[in-house]
C-alpha cells in the first residue's frame, strides 16, 4: 500500500500544480506578483533526502520529461534540471543533519536555484525580457514565500509518508 | 582503474551535454506541430489533467460565487441603471439585424467575416512556471480544432491556438512577449482605423496597437475589435478599449495602448472560434502556399 502511495502522491502533485498556477498572477496595490507552484520538486527533494537519491533522480527524469512535453514544449529543460536538483539534494544531505527545519530550508533554497536557472535560460533564448531586479521582486520572492508555506504545511506529511516506506522496506529486507 | 572509470563518466557527461543541446535546439525550432510521441504524452497527461481539473474548477467556481455575492448590491444598482437603456438598444439591434440581412440578400453576399462556429472548451491547465503565457484546453483536432484559431471568452479575445493534438490544444495568450504574435485589429468609430495588436506592455499591463494611420482620428475610450483581415480570426471579436494614444517610434504612424476587455486572471471556460469563411494559410498557418484566389481547376484550364 505504502509502496504505491509514494509515486501516486508525485502524480497527484504533478496534476495539481497547474490548477494552483491558475490562481497565480495576483495583484497587490497595482504590483503583479507571480507565484509558481513547485510542489512536485519539493516532494522529490524530500524523497531524495529521506529515502533514496537514485530513486528521486529517476522520478525527476520521468516527471521532467512529462513537464517538458506537456507544458513547456522545450524538451530537455526540466528533464535535466529536476534530476540535477534531486541529485544535489541527495548529496548535500550526506554532509548535514536531517532535521525537518534544515531540510525545509534546503528544499526552498534549491527551488530558488531552480527558478533562477530557468530565468537565466529563458532570458538567454529571448522568451522574457524582464530585468533581474524585477525578476527577484515579482517572481522569485513570492515564489519562495508560497513554496515555503506549502512545505511548512505539508512537509511533515511527506516526511511521515516516506519514513513509513523506509520502515516497510527495512522490514522486507530483514 | 578508477582513473579509467572517471574518464568514462566524463565522456558520458560530454555526450549527454551535446545530446541535450541538440534536443533543446530541435524543440526550439519553429515546429509546425507536435511529433507523434509528444502527441501521445500530451493526450495521456491531458486526459488525467481534465479529470483533476473538474473538481478544481468547481471549487474555484464556488469561491467566485462567494466573491460575486459580496458585490451583489453594488452590481444590482448599476445593472438597473443600464436596464433602461437595454430595451432601446435591443430594439435597435433587431432592426439593424433584419436590415443587414435584407441588404445582404440584395447584394447576394451571404458570407461574412463575422460568422464563426463556436467550439466550447474547458481550460484544464495553465503552464505552471508562467514564463510563457499559455493555457491548455480539453478539445483537440478530433473536435475540429485547428492551429491558429481564435480563442475568446464572452468578454473578448484571449489568444490563439498554437499546438493541437487529438484531444488537447495549447493556447498562447494575447499578452505574450513573442514578437511574431500579431492580431489585425480595428478601432470602432465614425471612421474605422486599422492597426495591428503587437506586443504587450508589462508595466502598464496593456496591449499595444501599432501601425494606425496617423491621419485618422483615434481617441481614448474607443473600442478595439479584431478586423478579420489577418485571414484567420473572425471579425468583430472584442479586444479592448484604448487608454492612451501616442505616436510610433519613428513618428510615421500612431500607436495606442489597449486595455484588454477579457479577464485573464481566471480563465476556466473559453470558446474556440472556427471561422466560417475561407481561412488563408500564410506563414502563420501551415504555409502550404496554396493559391486561394484562383481555384485549382481554373488555373489548370489556363495552363492548357
Describe it:
The complex is a heterodimer of chains A (174) and B (304). Chain A is mainly α. Chain A has a single domain (2-165), classed as Orthogonal Bundle (Arp2/3 complex 21 kDa subunit ARPC3). Chain A has six helices and two strands; from the N terminus they run αββααααα. Chain A has helices spanning 2-21, 39-50, 53-72, 78-92, 100-124, 132-173, and strands at residues 26-28, 31-33. Chain A has a two-stranded antiparallel sheet with strand order 1-2. In chain A, helix 1 (2-21) runs antiparallel to helix 2, helix 2 packs parallel to helix 4 (78-92) and helix 5 packs across helix 6. Chain A is globular, with a radius of gyration of 17 Å. In chain A, 40% of the residues are buried. Chain B is an alpha+beta fold. Among the domains of chain B are: 36-107, no CATH class; 182-260, Rod shape-determining protein MreC, domain 2 (Thrombin, subunit H). Chain B has helices at 2-28, 36-70, 72-107, 296-303; strands spanning 116-126, 134-137, 150-152, 157-164, 169-173, 182-187, 193-201, 206-213, 223-226, 238-247, 253-260, 269-275. In chain B, the strands form two sheets. A six-stranded antiparallel β-barrel of chain B has the order 1-2-5-4-3-12. Mean pLDDT of chain B is 80; it is low at 298-304. Chain A binds chain B through residues 11, 15-25, 27, 32, 34, 36-37, 65-66, 68-77, 80, 118, 122, 125, 127-130, and chain B through 20, 23-24, 26-28, 34, 38, 41-42, 45-46, 48-49, 52-53, 56, 60, 123-132, 134, 136, 163, 170, 177, 202, 205, 264-268.
